[in-house]
Specification:
The chain is an alpha+beta fold. The protein has 14 helices and 38 strands. Helices cover about 25% and strands about 35% of the residues.
């Protein structure tokens, strides 16, 4: 039904102004006609002026043509159900004290049609938002669409012109799009209130959650692999518990923990792989009696365990005790292929099993080594050449190998500071003290906060026991004269007593250099750790050093080609840097491409990247890509010219927008209800909110106004008449 009428403003202000304006216009017209002799033409001009004044008076009264229409169809109530991933959280306490998932409670309401009373007065339209699309669900990767609460409200307003109210059933968690306040403001202008049901608890329910565990892409047999994990406690008490690492043959490792109340606990458990193969491990903690959620206390880990032969080169001048026991430790390690070079200044080069006659002269020969140990050796006669130092620098930076500095009391390593290896040294040496500092009293290494749980210094099962081991390890009587550690390094251990103007003397320092790693060991007495325990700690320490430094070089390799990537466990949206080293059939580095890598994800998508050749002639090709989806990627590296090919898997984690186990955001829903003049309640108050919607007044008629007084054509008419009036005055000679 429609009706129309004219509306004018007849208040005292416009009427008084109109009377005054009309009086002045009449007086001016009478005065002009009395004194002027323009005849009939002046009369028409004055009448035209009176017409313009009359139109202006009408404009002051704001005439509007009002058309009203009452809708004959039923008004609409839109019921919006949240189907996002966060609705899987189980924290809705039912009438019989059972704990339901938010989505399960919503499904029950949809099945029972809890808003059925509204159908007597309104047309009820039920829809969902935040759900995974059918196309996304069919893909192999796990979809994570997120929740756009603002879009859901805007979509409801757009689809229903006769919208009377919105019944929103959600946990209030939005992580995409604009703030829902924007849509709420537009609804308030249309007089559409939002009645929001907060689904879920606004506080954490009692729970222990094993949030994450990080594992490398592969491990080596007999390697000690550190697995960092995070546990979140929502229990109001401290919990003394343990975590178990379970493999195919039972429990492999156990870690005792004390988790503070309502806090997060981060720790590391060590895994010693049983044998080569692909394994599924489970990290789990026992379920506490007062936990409500019993299915988030375990995480699955898949890891490939391989048996690799790591090639190590040890270079020294004299067969000091540190060299002898290091050589024995590496020679007895079944995972190490050892090569030694004992230079013996003034004497023939050392000979025997595992010895080589000269330093590798070409980059092709040196590229075979995963780790290089440089003992008390320098640049010059009886040492290595500047060309050798340059090759070692390229091996570390370009090939991803490791370099260990082991200075000695001869002080020959000080000459390395002026060579290409000077950039790789992680410490600054004291000038004038090349031969180091000796003492008749025994000193000890003391772990730093960084070194207490670092893989290199982990000589026991947990950080507390590890610190005890280091406290009672036999000490040293000589150490290198170190001034300070360079920026960007990790200091793992310092002198137990000595210090200088920079603080404690750093003696065990690591750093990343290019694609490789560097370690500085500032004492020559690690061999003394064998006292009373034989090989227990000495062999374990150097075995961990070799495997830690060579880890990424063995991510993926085949004959004549090696491929690795960083980070090793990337997340979706994080840039991944690719590095391939290619040799031709003659064993020489390939310096020109093309070298390509084809990346295929689990969803069937694939892209091919051209890797760029790095300068230096090491056969290194680099590139990068950004994974847009989580899941397992297969990387196939191909060099057609050298007939080299290798495959690798990149496991990309997918940080979830939709977090299960988070409290409901009732404050968001309360704000939406307040802006739109609606109400907010809990799941127990659904019936009350339905009754409130029933009691809403009839919607106001739809009103359309044609504002004549501000229409452009109306203004054009008045201006045109004024133009005619002034032009007429000029024609009759009055201006």
């Amino acid at each position: 039904m429609t009706s129309s009428f004219w509306s004018v403003d007849l208040s005292w202000g416009p009427l008084l102004m109109g009377v005054v304006a009309l009086s002045v216009a009449l007086w001016l017209a009478w005065r002009n006609l009395r004194h002027a002799r323009a005849g009939q033409r002046l009369v028409w001009l004055e009448l035209l002026r009176l017409l313009v004044v009359g139109l202006l008076i009408v404009t002051l009264c704001k005439p509007e043509r009002v058309r009203t229409a009452r809708r004959t169809e039923l008004p609409v109530v839109a019921v919006l159900g949240d189907a996002s991933g966060s609705m899987a959280t189980r924290d809705v306490v039912g009438s019989n004290a059972t704990v339901l998932a938010r989505g399960a409670w919503l499904a029950a309401q949809q099945a029972a049609r809890g808003w059925q009373p509204l159908e007597e007065k309104y047309r009820v339209v039920v829809s969902e938002f935040g759900a995974v699309s059918t196309q996304a669900a069919a893909r192999a990767v796990q979809p994570d669409p997120g929740t756009d609460l603002n879009q859901a409200l805007e979509e409801a307003a757009r689809l229903h012109g006769n919208l009377r109210a919105i019944l929103l059933l959600s946990d209030g968690d939005w992580n995409l799009g604009k703030s829902p306040v924007s849509a709420a403001t537009a609804l308030a202008v249309r007089d559409v209130p939002v009645f929001a049901v907060s689904v879920g608890s606004e506080t954490f329910l009692p729970d222990l959650e094993l949030q994450s565990v990080t594992a490398p892409a592969y491990g080596l047999v007999d390697e000690h692999i550190a697995l960092p994990f995070t546990i979140r406690s929502h229990l109001p008490r401290d919990v003394k518990t343990r975590v178990d690492l379970v493999g195919p043959r039972g429990v492999l490792a156990t870690k005792e923990l004390l988790i503070p109340a309502m806090a997060q606990c981060q720790d590391t458990i060590l895994l010693v792989p049983p044998a080569a193969g692909d394994y599924d491990f489970t990290l789990a903690l026992p379920v506490e009696q007062d936990e409500l959620f019993r299915d988030n206390n375990a995480r699955e880990i898949h890891m490939a365990i391989r048996r690799e032969l790591l090639k190590v080169l040890v270079v020294d001048t004299l067969p000091r005790w540190e060299y002898r026991f290091l050589r024995n430790a590496l020679a007895r390690d079944p995972g190490v292929a050892l090569s030694c070079l004992l230079l013996h200044p003034g004497l023939p080069v050392g000979e025997g099993r595992d010895y080589i006659r000269a330093f590798p002269a070409t980059r092709e020969e040196l590229s075979a080594f995963d780790v290089v140990f440089l003992g008390d050796v320098g640049i010059g006669p009886g040492g290595i050449t500047p060309e050798n130092a340059t090759l070692i620098k390229g091996l570390v930076e370009q090939q991803g190998s490791g370099l260990v500095f082991l200075p000695g009391s001869q002080g020959k390593q000080t000459s390395l500071a002026t060579s290409a290896l000077g950039e790789l040294l992680p410490v600054v040496m004291e000038p004038g003290a090349a031969e180091g500092i000796g003492s008749p009293l025994e000193s000890r290494l003391e772990l730093t906060a960084r070194g207490r749980d670092h893989l290199l210094t982990m000589l026991a099962a947990d950080p507390a026991a590890n610190q005890t081991v280091w406290k009672y390890l036999p000490g040293f009587y000589w150490y290198a004269a170190v001034s300070r550690a360079k920026p960007g390094t990790d200091v793992l251990a310092v002198h137990g007593a000595a210090r200088n103007q920079h603080g404690r003397i750093p003696l065990l320092v690591t750093r990343n250099q290019g694609s490789g790693k560097v370690l500085f060991m500032g004492t020559d007495s690690a061999w003394r750790w064998r006292r009373g325990v034989e090989d227990t700690y000495h062999y374990r320490f150097w075995g961990q050093v070799v495997r830690w430094m060579s880890h990424q070089r063995h991510l993926a390799h085949a004959e004549g080609i090696r491929f690795f990537f960083t980070p090793e466990a990337p997340a979706r949206g994080e840039r991944v840097f690719l590095n391939a080293t290619v040799f031709d059939r003659a064993g020489l580095p390939v310096t020109t491409g093309p070298v390509t890598v084809t990346l295929a994800n689990a969803a069937g998508g694939a892209e091919t990247l051209d890797l760029n050749a790095e300068p230096g002639g090491w056969g290194v090709f680099t590139g990068s890509f950004v994974p847009r989806e989580g899941g397992r990627y297969t990387a196939e590296v191909l060099c057609p010219a050298a007939e080299r090919q290798v495959k690798a898997e990149i496991l990309v984690s997918s940080p979830q927008r939709e977090r299960v186990g988070r409290p409901a955001r009732g404050a968001v829903l309360r704000e939406l209800a307040a802006i739109t003049h609606g109400r907010q309640g809990t799941t127990a108050q659904l019936d009350e909110l339905v009754r409130s919607i029933q009691l809403l007044p009839e919607p106001k008629p739809v009103e359309e106004r044609f504002r004549l007084w501000c229409h452009p054509l109306w203004a054009t008419l008045i201006v045109g008449l004024l133009t005619v009036y002034w032009a007429g005055r000029k024609l009759i000679g009055l201006v």
